[in-house]
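Team,

Forwarding the record for the chain on the shared tracking sheet. I've put the sequence and predicted structure together so nobody has to dig through attachments.
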Amino acid sequence: MYLHSKLEDYKDNINIAFIGCGKFISMFLSQYNQLKKIKIDTIIDLDIERAKSNCIKSGLKKETVEKINFVNSLDSILNRNIEIFIEATGNPVAGTQHACKVIQAKKDIIMVNVEADVLCGKYLSDLAKENNVIYSMAYGDQPSLILEQIEWARLNGFFVTCAGKGTKYHPSFEYSTPESVWNNYGMTAEQAKKAGMNPKMFNSFVTGDKSSIEMAAVANASGLECPVNGLTYPPVGVYDIANKLIPKDKGGHIDHEGQVEVISSIDRKKIQIENDLRWGVYIVLRAQNNYVKNCFKEYGMVTDNSGEYSAIWRPYHYVGLELAQSIYSIALDRKPTGYTKFFNADVVSVAKKDLASGEILDGEGGFAARGRLTASKDSIGGNFLPLGLSDGAKTKKSIKKDEFIKIDDVEINWKQEVLKAREYQTKILNK
């Protein structure tokens, strides 16, 4: 808190480096000219010319871009005077490898790469502690904003009944592909191209892959549980959150007290609901006694019909436009804006279509598989294939549409860092 006041007295520059320079980082770059003390030292990207172009399109002056060190290899700059690395490739395997290298080089890291965090976050978080550096979620992404609300609630003695976000969801979207994504998302292919939006990445929002990944991140950071059978996306407007996102035995929708859930901005007829939360985040609190219930009523708080549960929400998240919050929090306070504490949630692969033996899977947002939020004990117990390991995996047998894909069903080129991380997390789970 009060980071801006601390910034006024901060004398040094905060040297940062980006690993990947896509849409999220471009949004941050658009704010860069207004930010104090932050200095971009290096941008690492496989396509340097595209990265430079994104910088210019985001509003950086040519002379500013010329001062940035552009490279295509992380190894080459680990010894530079860089304090904070921001991993934003979106690739869970590469992101895990990058995070390991940064942490072992005794540097702080912000993971825009939620995919890597869900795949190996508990290992990476513990590795960071061992090396006395900060491992942080990225402020601006919904998981960090949800965790901020949870932290506030728990700090003030509230029990968090449910937490999550909004999205545009329909059951038919689970089979969306990069070819059909834009109609489902709600824009034209031309609009998406102009905005620099990757169809495969944004398809992950439509199919529910990203929602499952983000809710796994929230569960693993907060200790909240998964729904019994994956996310259900009830269509709920903000003024009905407190009525709907409470346990079924209290007249609501969720399986139990203390879980994550995502709500939809459209109903099952694809009609827009009133006061939707498509871009926002929420939590539901439970009053611990009648005095608190009366306070909810006296101060006009939005509650369920009984007055026992109250909801708060933030209607929007500003994505990369808010990333500076994480940078300043680490540099000025030595605190992350959310981090992984548990391994109680995983995202596993489900076949989107009938898969033939020898077929190559294409990961999150692709044509072959979709992600499902699952309790880690069920994921490990069922030997299910994490969605983060599905890109490039080759099927060894035919798999029916809507079947869970198991690790033994595919050939995987295991990377040492990922294998070590998953084994570490499995051991923790089995203790």
